[in-house]
Design a protein that fits this description.
The protein has two domains: 1-75 and 162-264, P-loop containing nucleotide triphosphate hydrolases (Rossmann fold, 3-Layer(aba) Sandwich), CATH 3.40.50.300; 79-159, no CATH class. Strand 4 and strand 5 form a beta hairpin. It is an alpha/beta fold. The two termini are 37 Å apart. It has seven helices and ten strands. Bound molecules: adenosine-5'-triphosphate and magnesium ion. The site of adenosine-5'-triphosphate has 12 residues, from strand 2 and helix 1.
Length: 264
């Protein structure tokens, strides 16, 4: 196994506010990493680093041993909790758009055989996520679970090696959530993906992940809450039998979630 992503002493700071500090870790290719931690711990920031939407203020992020380029590349796909599909496009158009942008960067439009091929690829991906009979409907006509299936198809159609999922099931009903967990697990295996899943649900983290990573602050300064950032305070590979013990240990490890609004 080799590291697809490598973080070496990575910091992210906004002026005097430290969000992430001294993050040093490797992520193995084809692993399924669940990322947990309190609100504001920098989980989404960490995903933005992987996407190249943001650069570290200190340290380095390597993709396949090479410094990550500060731009979105087709080797990384992303699904957010909500709103990652275009409302004015049908399911098929949403998924085709990614291919059109990649293959016709100027006009984002393909013609003739190239268009037919993109259409077939998009339809096949929609079938893979269970939307074969919904190619021509709009997101507003879909349930939350269907919209997330669409967002996953949109992310996967370009065959990324790394799939980033930022609380993708957070807004879904429990039953639908189980279906989505099964879908993501199947796609992870079938496509040989490396997945980084941010979730607030510790059970989900342990159920799906081959590794659970928790971000939190090691140090707090009550007079200057911005002074210290979060880092990986807990990191466990799940090829061990005592999953439940590990889950309890993590629950005890994380600092309690602030109840008051704006406490992050
Ligand atoms: N552009 C920015 N300028 C200043 N601070 C920022 C900026 N982007 C993020 N932050 C801060 O970084 C911290 C981490 O944010 P981030 O969204 O990564 O947390 P998170 O762990 O994803 O939280 P949540 O679980 O609520 O989604 C927050 O305190 C946030 O306010
Ligand atoms: Mg977040």
């Amino acid at each position: 196994m080799s590291a697809i992503l490598s973080f070496d002493n990575v910091w992210v700071e906004y002026r005097d506010k430290v969000v992430l500090e001294s993050v040093t870790l490797d992520i193995e290719e084809r692993s399924f990493v669940s990322l947990v931690g309190p609100s504001g711990a920098g989980k989404s920031t960490f995903l933005r680093l992987v996407l190249g939407q943001e650069g570290p203020t200190r340290g380095t992020v390597l993709l396949d041993g090479t410094k990550l380029k500060p731009e979105c590349e087709p080797d990384r796909g992303v699904v957010f909790q909500k709103y990652s599909v275009f409302p004015h496009m049908t399911a098929l158009q949403n998924v085709m758009l990614g291919l059109e942008c990649a293959r016709a960067p100027v006009m984002a439009r393909l013609y003739g055989k190239a268009r037919k091929r993109a259409r077939d690829e998009a339809a096949a991906m929609l079938e893979a996520v269970g939307l074969a009979h919904n190619l021509d409907i709009y997101p507003a006509q879909m349930s939350g679970g269907m919209q997330q299936r669409l967002a996953i198809a949109q992310a996967l159609v370009k065959h990324p090696r790394i799939l980033l999922l930022d609380e993708p099931f957070g807004a879904l009903d429990p039953g639908i959530r189980l279906d989505m967990q099964a879908l993501v697990t199947r796609l992870w295996r079938e496509h040989g993906l490396t997945i980084l899943l941010v979730t607030h649900d510790i059970q989900e983290a342990f159920k799906l992940g081959t590794r659970v990573l928790a971000f939190d602050k090691r140090r707090h300064d009550p007079h200057a809450p911005h002074r210290y950032g979060a880092t990986a305070v807990y990191d466990v590979a799940l090829d061990r039998k005592d999953r439940e013990d590990a889950e309890r240990e993590l629950a005890a490890h994380l600092s309690p979630q602030p109840a008051a609004a704006g406490a992050a």
